[in-house]
Specification:
Largest sheet: 7 strands, mixed
Radius of gyration: 13 Å
Number of helices: 0
Mean pLDDT: 95
Length: 125
């Protein structure tokens, strides 16, 4: 069964940190582009970070310098280290996989085919 399962969400105060994990089964994270997305209530899903097969990373301007995407090919797991969290980071976070290799629109949700179920991140003041 091909699936992505996120974990590591929770509640934290502003300025705190969380580390999200995304475990892949039936799918190899090293062979495809992987990304993290988030969706806040009443807002569209947005891309925050992605990593290509070559390990090159991309970030949205709103999270650059605070969130770090990485992957462990041996563990077949994707990570998102979240530091200096702000209340506006509150959202459901999803990991996703894309078979499209190009960097064009790499943070666009529309180019990702496989999605996890999401994990809630809540940042309080």
């Amino acid at each position: 069964q091909v699936q992505l399962v996120e974990s590591g969400g929770g509640s934290v105060q502003a300025g705190g940190s969380l580390r999200l994990s995304c475990a892949a089964s039936g799918y190899t994270v090293s062979s495809t582009r992987m990304g993290w997305f988030r969706q806040a209530p009443g807002k569209e899903r947005e891309g925050v970070a992605c990593i290509g097969r070559d390990g090159i990373t991309m970030y949205s301007d709103s999270v650059k310098g605070r969130l770090t995407i990485s992957k462990d090919n041996a563990m077949n797991t994707l990570y998102l280290q979240m530091d200096s969290l702000k209340p506006e980071d509150t959202a459901v976070y999803y990991c996703a996989a894309s078979t499209i290799a190009s960097n064009e629109n790499a943070l666009s949700p529309s180019r990702y085919e496989l999605w996890g179920q999401g994990t809630q991140v809540t940042v309080s003041t």
